[in-house]
Structure formats: C-alpha cells, structure tokens
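[Meeting: bench + compute handoff]

Bench side (C.D.) handed over the final construct sequence. Compute side (W.E.) agreed to return the predicted structure before the next meeting so the bench team could plan truncations. Sequence as handed over:
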Amino acid sequence: MWAMDTRDASNKGGFPALLHLTFILQQVSDELLLKEVGIGLSQARIMSVLHPSVAKYQRSVATALSQTEANVSRQLRVMKKDGLVHVAKNKKDGRQKDVTLTVKGVKKYDQAKDILKDQQSRLLKLLSNSEVEAFEHATRNLSAQHGRRS
C-alpha cells in the first residue's frame, strides 16, 4: 500500500528533494513492514546483511550498514528477544559477537523482501517506461559512485 502525505509534497524549506523522497520511502516501508510482518525497516536491513544465515560479527553488520555498533546492538537485542537472531560470543575472540538469523528470522526476512519488492513494483507503475529507465540508470550510477567512496 503506497500513500504519500500530499500536504507537504512541495517540501518547502525542508530537506533537498532526493533526501525528502528517501525519508518518505523509508517511513512508508517501515510502516508497511511493521503492519504486515511485525519488523521494522532497520531490522529488515540487518537481516539482509545476515542472509543467508551465516554467522557474522556484529561489528561487520554495523560496517555493512554504515551504522554504529551501538545502534545495531539495540536492534539485535529486540530481534533476539523476538527470536529472529541468535547472538553469541565468538569462541576465538570473546570481545566479538557472532550473529545469525534463526529459522523464524529467515522466514520474516523473506516475507519482508517480498513486501518491499511488491511496494517497489507498485511505485514504478506510477512512472512511464522512460521514467523507469531513467530512474534505474540514475540508481545504478549513484550506487556505483557510493561504492567507490566506501
């Protein structure tokens, strides 16, 4: 379900247009995932790094998402309580924590991924074919530029 609050669609005096759009898309995605799957977008992002369910250091999850370890740790505590991840001290380095998705976590992630793909499909249907092509081209270019800076 896609709904944008059109009362502030002009974004007068606010963030630049691309950042404003990003904020709206994240907010709508977060609300949709919470309603449909019971997880937030931040949790889905963590799951995307952990999928397939191979143990990863908590620190590497934070690095992959360009987030602080503290932020990832807070999300992982909630996810562990909900049975979505398993967190354990690393056997070789007790200062590190290994994180894996549980079977329940994998199922929730797969649901979330499908919902987000459907949401994207519905959004892209609002654009013409040439607009979709331009958007995909711009997305690839921006992603490539980000990859070069990381």
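W.E. noted at the follow-up: The mean pLDDT is 88. C.D. will use this when planning the next construct.
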